[in-house]
Design a protein that fits this description.
This protein is of the alpha/beta class and about 120 residues long. The chain has four helices and four strands; from the N terminus they run αβαβαβαβ. Strands 1-2 form a two-stranded parallel sheet. It has a two-stranded parallel ribbon with strand order 3-4. α1 crosses α2. The longest helix is centred in the first third of the chain and has 14 residues. It is globular. It starts with a helix and ends in a 17-residue tail after the last strand. About 30% of the residues are buried. The mean pLDDT is about 80.
């Protein structure tokens, strides 16, 4: 179990390290009831002023549409999201920040993590 202070500290650290701010548009595919969706999604956006764009269920076509339509700049998630993006006929997204946290990723996904 973590305290409110710990949850806010984790979110503030991620926002700071990620360089997130009010100009960012943050796509959250992770469920809000999960610590990743809550801490690295909702709390990070509240603390940094980033715009949160929730996606209820992961669907690669919808994800890529949202990235383009909503001008998403931040897309955190597991390597399977980036694998799906690489495998999709339209290719990678134009997000500025992508992160996979501690999930192991195959070498072909490593170019997806950039601060481009």
């Amino acid at each position: 179990m973590s305290t409110h202070r710990q949850a806010l500290s984790v979110a503030a650290a991620w926002a700071d390290i990620g360089g997130l701010g009010p100009t960012d548009r943050y796509l959250v595919v992770n469920p809000f009831f999960h610590s990743f969706g809550f801490k690295a999604g909702v709390l990070v956006c509240l603390l940094s002023g980033a715009t949160i764009v929730p996606q209820v269920v992961f669907d690669i076509d919808r994800t890529l549409d949202l990235v383009a339509q909503e001008r998403i700049t931040v897309l955190p998630g597991p390597p399977t999201i980036y694998q799906a993006m690489l495998d999709h006929p339209t290719g990678r997204s134009g997000t500025r920040r992508r992160c996979g946290w501690r999930s192991p990723a195959p070498p072909r996904c490593r170019p997806c993590w950039s601060s481009g």
